[in-house]
Design goal:
By secondary structure, this protein is an alpha/beta fold. Helices cover 45% and strands 15% of the residues. It binds uracil (URA) and calcium ion. The site of calcium ion has 8 residues, from strand 6 and helix 11.
Length: 433
C-alpha cells in the first residue's frame, strides 16, 4: 500500500477499507508514515468526512496502536464516563462514589493535565494522604471490594491518538467530527471500559459551540461504541456557564461532598443524576433509566453515597473525615476576596471560559506541564444565570495563596454580566441512547 494513494482516495471522497485504515495508523504510529502525509490525510478527512464503518475502523486501529488495560479481574460491567471538557466540572468526583453506591464497579483511570483546574487526580490529592499510585492488583482488589478506585494513567495507551491529536492541533484539523469521535472513543476503549457514558458539552465554555454539532458528535460516538461492542449512551449538557458553583481543586472536593450529602448545587446534582442513571443502567443496577435514577436519588439522601466516598478515600490513604469536616481538612487559602456587584440586575450570562482563566490566574490550574497547582485556589460563585442581584451583593469569592490583585477581581466582575432580563438556561438538551 502507498499512503499517497490513500490520501488521493479520501481527497475524492471515497471510503477507506478497514485494512487501509489499520495499515495507515500502524505506519503512522511506528513512523514509517511521516507527519506531512498524515496531515494531508487529516485535512482530506476534515473536508470529506468518514462513514460509520471508517469511523469504527479508525477508532479500533488507534486502540490497537498501544497497550490496552485489562480489567478482567474486576467483576461486573465496568462503565466509564467521559466529559468533553468545560469549566469547574465536578461530576467525576460525585459520580464515582455515587454509582459505586448502587453496586456498579467504577474503575477509573485519570490524569492531571493542563487547564483551568487540575484533573480529577489533582482534585483528589487536595485530600491529605490520598494517593493514586496503585499496582494493577491493588487497583482490581479495591474495585472488587469497594466498587470504586482511581488510578493514575500508566502504560502506553493510544499512541496513535497522541501523535495525531498533536498534529491536528497545528494543522487546523481538530474540529472534525470523525476525528474527535475516534480520538475520544479510542482512549475509553483502550482504558478497558465495557460500557461508556458521554457528557457532550455545548455552549461558550465548551468545544462544541452549538447544539447541532454537539448532537452529531454524541450520535457518532454512540454509534462507534455500539459497533465495537461497547454499549454507549450520551447526554448533551449546557456549558454556557460553569457547572456548579466551585472552580478549583479543593473547592470542588468540598462541592462534591455537599452534593453527595444531597446538598449540592442544583445543576451539578441534576447532571450527576442524568449521567449516573445511564452508568447505573448500563452497569446492570437497574432495568430502566427511571429506576436507576430513583436508586441514585435515594443514596444521595440516605447517606450511602457519602459512605461510599469515605470508603473510597480511606482505601486510597486519604483522611475520610474530610466528608464530615471539609473546612478543617482541605487546604486553606491565605487570601480571600469577595467580588461585589456594582449595580443591581439579573445575571444574564457567566462566561465560563473567562472564569476558568480567572481560576487559573488564582493558581488553580497548570499553564505548562511543570506549573505547580495551588490546591486551595479558585473561586466560588454565589450567583448563577437567572438570579437577581442587588448592588453590593457578593457575586463570587476568590481564594488564593498569592495576594489577589485587582485585575483578577475585575475580570470576574466583568464576566458575571448583569442585565434587566434573564432566565435560567436549560441544563440538559438531549439524551442519546
Ligand atoms: N478531545 C479529545 O480527546 N480528542 C479530540 O480530538 C478532541 C477533544
Ligand atoms: Ca463545579
Amino acid at each position: 500500500m502507498r499512503m499517497i494513494d490513500l490520501i488521493e482516495k479520501k481527497q475524492h471522497g471515497e471510503r477507506l477499507t478497514d485494512e487501509e485504515i489499520k495499515w495507515m495508523i500502524t505506519g503512522y504510529t511506528n513512523e514509517t508514515i511521516p507527519d506531512y502525509q498524515m496531515s494531508a490525510m487529516a485535512m482530506a478527512i476534515y473536508f470529506k468526512g468518514m462513514n460509520d464503518d471508517e469511523r469504527s475502523a479508525l477508532t479500533m486501529a488507534m486502540v490497537e496502536s498501544g497497550d490496552q488495560i485489562d480489567l478482567s479481574e474486576i467483576e461486573g460491567i465496568k462503565v466509564d464516563k467521559h466529559s468533553t471538557g468545560g469549566v469547574g466540572d465536578t461530576t467525576t468526583l460525585v459520580l464515582a462514589p455515587l454509582v459505586a453506591s448502587v453496586g456498579v464497579p467504577v474503575a477509573k483511570m485519570s490524569g492531571r493535565g493542563l487547564g483551568h483546574t487540575g484533573g480529577t487526580i489533582d482534585k483528589l490529592e487536595s485530600i491529605p494522604g490520598f494517593h493514586v499510585e496503585l499496582s494493577q492488583d491493588e487497583f482490581s482488589d479495591l474495585v472488587n471490594r469497594n466498587k470504586v478506585a482511581v488510578v493514575g494513567q500508566s502504560g502506553n495507551l493510544t499512541p496513535a491518538d497522541k501523535k495525531l491529536y498533536a498534529l491536528r492541533d497545528v494543522t487546523s484539523t481538530v474540529e472534525s467530527i470523525p476525528l474527535i469521535a475516534s480520538s475520544i472513543m479510542s482512549k475509553k476503549i483502550a482504558a478497558g471500559a465495557d460500557a461508556i457514558v458521554l457528557d457532550v458539552k455545548t455552549g461558550a465554555g465548551a468545544f462544541m459551540k452549538n447544539q447541532d454539532q454537539a448532537r452529531e458528535l454524541a450520535e457518532t460516538m454512540v454509534k462507534i461504541g455500539d459497533s465495537v461492542g461497547r454499549k454507549t449512551m450520551a447526554v448533551i449538557s449546557d456549558m454556557s456557564q460553569p457547572l456548579g458553583n466551585a472552580i478549583g481543586n479543593g473547592l470542588e472536593v468540598k462541592e462534591a461532598i455537599d452534593t453527595l450529602k444531597g446538598q449540592g448545587p442544583k445543576d451539578l446534582t441534576e447532571l450527576c443524576l442524568a449521567l449516573g442513571s445511564q452508568m447505573a443502567y448500563l452497569g446492570g443496577a437497574a432495568s430502566s433509566l427511571e429506576e436507576a435514577r430513583l436508586k441514585l436519588e435515594a443514596n444521595l439522601h440516605n447517606g450511602k453515597a457519602l459512605e461510599a466516598f469515605k470508603t473510597f478515600v480511606s482505601s486510597q490513604g486519604g483522611e475520610a473525615a474530610v466528608a464530615d469536616e471539609p473546612e478543617n481538612i482541605l487546604p486553606k487559602a491565605a487570601h480571600q476576596q469577595d467580588v461585589k456587584a456594582e449595580k443591581s440586575g439579573k445575571v444574564s450570562e457567566i462566561t465560563a471560559d473567562q472564569l476558568g482563566i480567572a481560576a487559573m490566574m488564582l493558581g488553580a490550574g497548570r499553564e505548562t506541564k511543570d506549573s505547580q497547582i495551588d490546591l486551595a485556589a479558585g473561586l466560588v460563585l454565589h450567583k448563577k444565570v437567572g438570579d437577581t442581584v442587588e448592588s453590593g451583593d457578593i457575586m463570587a469569592s476568590l481564594y488564593s495563596n498569592k495576594p489577589i490583585n485587582e485585575e483578577i477581581v475585575s475580570k470576574v466582575r466583568q464576566n458575571i454580566i448583569l442585565s434587566d432580563q434573564a432566565k435560567e438556561p436549560a441544563l440538559i438538551y438531549d439524551v442519546i441512547q
